[in-house]
User: What shape does this take?
Amino acid sequence: MAPGFARAAGWVRSGRRTTGRNPLLIIGVGLLLTIVGMGIFAPLLTPYDPIAQSFRELLLKPGSPGHFFGTDQFGRDVYTRCLYAIRINLVIGFVGVFLPFLIGVTLGAIAGYFRGWAETIVMRMVDVITAFPAYVILIGIVAVIGPSITNLFIALAISGWTAYARLIRGEMLAIRELEYVVAARGLGLGDRRVVIRHILPNAISPAIVFAMADIVLTILATASLSYLGLGVQAPTAEWGQMIKEGQLYLLNAWWLVTIPGLFIVATGVSLSLIGDGIAARLRVGS
Amino acid sequence: MTMSERGVDPHHGAAGSAIVSINDLTTVFRRETGPVRVVDEVSLDLRRGEVLGIVGESGSGKSMLLRSMMRILPKGAATTGGRVTYEGRDLLSLSTSDMHTIRGGEIGMVFQDPTAALNPVYTVRRQIYAALRSHQKLSAAEIERRAVQALTDVGIPSAAQRLDEYPHQFSGGMAQRVVIAIALASDPKILLADEPTTALDVTTQRQILMLLLAIERRREMTLVLVSHSLGVIAQLCDRVAVMYAGQLVELADTRTLFTAPKHPYTVGLLSCVPDAHKPRGAALVPIPGTVPDPGEHAPGCRFAPRCPLAVAACSAGPIELVQVGATHVSRCIRTDLVSLDAGLFTKLDVHDA
Amino acid sequence: MDRTSFIIRRLRQIVPVVIGIVVATFFLIRAVPGDPAVVILGERATPESLASLRTALGLDQPLPVQFAVYVGRIFSGDLGTSISSGTPVIDVMIPRMQVTIFLVVYSVVLASIIALPLATIAALRSGGLVDQVIRAIFTVTMAMPSFWIGIILILVLSIGLKLFPVSGYGDNLPDRLWHLFLPALTTALYLASMVIRSLRNSFLDLLNSEHVAFARSQGLTESTVFRRHILRNGLSPTISVLAITTGWLIGSTVVIETVFSIPGAGRLLIDSVFRRDYPVISGLVMLYAIIAVTINLVADLMYTYLDPRVSL
Assistant: This one.
């Protein structure tokens, strides 16, 4: 796996060369760094606690003294909760993609390289899992194992690996017949070595591109499940959870749903711009 | 391939008057780096009843020249200057609706890849009906009769049965016959054929070329045949225009061009073709280098970087077309040194033999 | 390959998928950590009630027997009994799924109405202002959670401008169309974004295609060329995108139905999860999957009619 990731990291690192020509990529990276920074330095950026309730300051409007984005029904500062939620939502977004990526790449590589019954089993599983609409399978799994952050990761992994397996297998089928792979095998290199050193690094780029889009999808899915009450549970500050609670006060406190949503959109747009930038770079490279 | 009976007939080509006059036609492609001239101030007459060949490597602008005349340029390309005069009218400034009557009705066009030129989702019937109806009103019985006739005329056996088949059910050669039938549906006076045989196998190529020639004679049409193959050109054409990097670099009647070319590029093209005019044992030598990218033209001769005769003056400034014979022009300042026998692109020791 | 053998082959591909769906839903309740009966009834349930629930769910038998019974029941249309209401799962599910399907069809229609003109403009003026704006909107839409779009639409159009009801389903067709407009619009925005992107790209390819150039060279008018050679040819790839996205869309209605309190299958699924009504959950999960598979199948069959070259 290592060379593949080194290569992937290489694109991100050497992204400098293209950023000069792609202002959207710069905006995306800048926006994401700002959001990540806000999450990391949340305690420095706000004096309030995201969970402690303050019953003297219920439902203050945005722009109220000391509460730039207002307060919620428990008197908690909306800005503070949104900042702390960055930590939860971004971590789930990245980790929630990393696990399916790992599983999918491994199983897809096995299917594409060894073919035979291994391929049949993996691809049948892919077919069955993708037959279920994404939210339905996520909800089904959470219904069985119960709502919690750990179980959310499990549900995301079970439902999410299939796309990577399909992509990697497809690439592998094309690459395994190429001359240099045949040559590597002819030299007597072991299967594992051939796959890891020679095939994966070349097969992995579509999976990387998809992973960037998948992070956005995962952040949206996490927020949606939390909104349904099946993801991150109260009182943890999480955007979807905040919107779920805020909807009860829609008639008199519009900011409770609007502001966390804007954080989701900003995060999603930044990641999409970066994903598009990487995809464009890969296209130019190939 | 050798020159056909048509190629050696000196009278046929010279006799006709101009049916289309192209003057300083310039077409640009918009790129992010700026507009790029893909057809660069081309001036050329089509003579009534002639077969004019246009030859050049891919990227030389020959297809874009045809599409500019028809005003069917791809997205991003636009004609920015020049005139295309047909029967006293400039096609480039005609209204859209007048242009519709010209297309198909006066000038028809045949494309390179018949499987791409025919719409895959419609039967041949629908496509030939559309072409027949585009310039005239026809009764149901009449249109069917004409469609069958049109397909039969281009040599499609059991045409009536094949009307309801889809393009993918036709072989490449048969599909190209369908394309030709559709292009001729409204009896155009001029047929522009853009590499009509490139996508076909060798035996089919010859059949399609002979078909085009037969049609041109029978209908007394003017045929423009674009090709990158000099063999095809030699066989069919009265006159030949050679294009390089968007410019017309040489124009002459076929015999002159093949026996006494006056542009080093033409000499280079000829030395890539196996034919009777070359000494036995002469190697087929490809021209070194590649056609320059349209965005990167130096001010002087565009062929200079690949030309064995190039001197400093060649790259100094724009090179104009010069008259080198009664009906022969060349865009070269060293025409006196250009000759097939000079061994420009062959090794001398081989040539001496 | 002709159409019939294509269809047969396509149906054969579906068989293992359907078997997989049945197996997955069979194991759904049995994968509950610990004793499902205890999870459903709670720690304080009496041994008698636990035992009778186990019998009702068939959990007291050996696994192979359970599976045989499960499959046998499915073939007779019996998906078990809802624990919370005591009615057969199938009777609980079907009316709710009809609501969901109505919403999905409504969304697809709305999305097509939005997507077609915008994709056309974007393709004809590619790189132009409209194209750029559409692309920007696409990027932003894809980053918005659908439930949030729904709530914002309620906030602006229902609460602010009082144009649409906040929630509910409506009694007759016009009333229903009016009540479901915002939820349908919410999902349609996503769907339209996907369709516009794919349609714009296929239109662009077609605009530069040889058969369009050939059609123009015959003297056909621009409107004829657009109708017959661009719209018609752009249809088949769009159907595929629509099918793929609709499979996804059906899942996302679970969230939308919650936002707008629509009594559809999605709302039932969420309620059943909170009630731990596992027979209903597994029945619904199966139904959703079967519907998604069917949509893809229908799309493939439509494809064979739209593109005579098709072979898979």
